Amino acid sequence: MKFALSKTSLISMILFAFPQIILPQETGKAPRLEKGKSLPVIQGRSRSLGLSVNRRNKKEVQDFFQNVYLPASTAQNEWSGSVKGCRPGKNSASFQKATEKMINYFRAMAGLPGDVTLDSELDRRAIEGALIFKAQGSLSHTPPKSWRCWSSTGKTAAGKSNISLGSAGPSAIVSYIKDDGSNNKEVGHRRWILHPAQKIMGSGSTDSTNALWVFGGFKKQKPEIPGGIAWPPAGYVPYLFGLSSDYRWSFSFPDADFKRSKVTVSYQNKRLRIRQEKPYNGYGENTLVWNVKGLPGGRPKDEVSVDVVIKNVVVKGKSLTFRYTVRFIAPGTISSSRSRKSYNLTAGMHLIMAAQSGKVSEGEIALDSGADVNALHKGWTPLMIAANNGKEDFVDFLLENHADLNVALDGQWTALRLAESRRHTRIAKKLKERGAQDIRSRSADSGIPEPPEFK
Questions:
Q1: Is the peptide bond between 232 and the residue preceding it cis, with omega within 30 degrees of 0?
Q2: Are 163 and 133 in contact (CB under 8 A)?
Q3: How much is the pTM?
C-alpha cells in the first residue's frame, strides 16, 4: 500500500488513515490553438473585481499566500465518481471554489485580473475527461475509443483542457503554473491560465487527475499589461515559485516577436547562466522561456533579489527592452487567525508523501505550511523515506533544511543504512559527508536480513 501524491486528499488521509495509490505527477502537453481558429469571446464586461495583491508590499504578499494559497491547497476533494461503472460523479462546491481561488491567486500574483470563474457545465464536461485519464492511467488530448471509460464528451474535454495525472483541483493548478517536464518547454499550461483575457474556465477532478477546460470564454477587450506578464513576476514573490534551477521562467507580451530576444539574469551583481528556449507560439500570448542556474536553493533566510533584462523584444516593428527585479521571500509563518495545529498536521503528512514521490516543490510547500522536517509516520521520517526510495534531490532538500540524520526505525534502520541496503550509493555518500552514523555494528545480530518497506 502506498500514498497518493495529492494535497487535496491530505485531510481525509489524516482523519481516516486510509492508504491510497501513488500516481506519478505529470501534465500532458498543453492544448494548442489551431491555426485559423479564434478564442471564444464572451459578451459584456466583467463586474467582478476578483483577487488582487500589491507585490511591492512584502507583508501583503505574505498574507495573500497565507490567506488564499494555503487554504486552497489544503481543500478536501470529495469526488463522488468511480472508475467502477465509469461514473464521472461531481466535485464538491467547496473544492471547486478552492480550485477557482488557486487560479486567481496566480493570476493576481502575475498582475492580472483575478476574476476567472468556473462554469458548472464546463466542470461537468471536464470531469468526464479526468475520469478517462484515471481509468486509463495515462494522458492524451485525443484519447482513443479503446481507452477505459471513454466518452465523446470526455474526449472533447481532453482536447480543450490542461490535463494532469497525479494531481487534482488546486494541486493541479500549481503543477500547470510550474509546467515542468521535458514536454512543456513552452509553458503552455501556464500561458493559458495567465492569459490576460481569460475569464471562464471549467475544472473536473477525480481523486488523482484533472482536466482544466481553458477554452471556455475570453474577454472581448484584453486588459492592457504594459510591462508584460512575467512569471515569476516583479516584486515580492514566495520563493516556491522560481527559486530553483528546474523552475522555468517566462515573459509574455501580446504579438511580440521573441526570435532575436536576449535574456540576462543577475544575482548579487553577477550574471547567471541561463538556458533560453526557442519561442513557441499558439499557447496563449507569445512568450519567451528560460531556466536560471546558480540561484541559492531552499527557503531563503533573507530576501533574494534577482534582476532580469530582456532586450530586443519586437512589438509592432519596434525593439523594446524590459527590466524588472524579482524579490524572493519566505511566505512567513501561519497567521494566528488560522488553526496552526491543523495546518501543521496536514503539512506533516504532505511532507511524508512528498518524500515518497521525491517532488521537492511539494516538500517546499509542506515546510512553508508548517511541517516539521522530521515529521514521523509509523516511525519513518521524510529523510528515511527519501533515502530508502533513492530520491536524491529530495534528500538534498531535506539536508539543506537540517533534517535529523540519525533517527532510526526500530532502533536499527537509519537513513544511511536504508540507502546502503538499497544500494543508493550517492545518497549514502552524501549522508556520511554530513555526519550520519553507521550503526550496523551495533545491530549486526538484529536478525533483520532485509530493509523494511515503507507502508
A1: yes
A2: yes
A3: 0.78
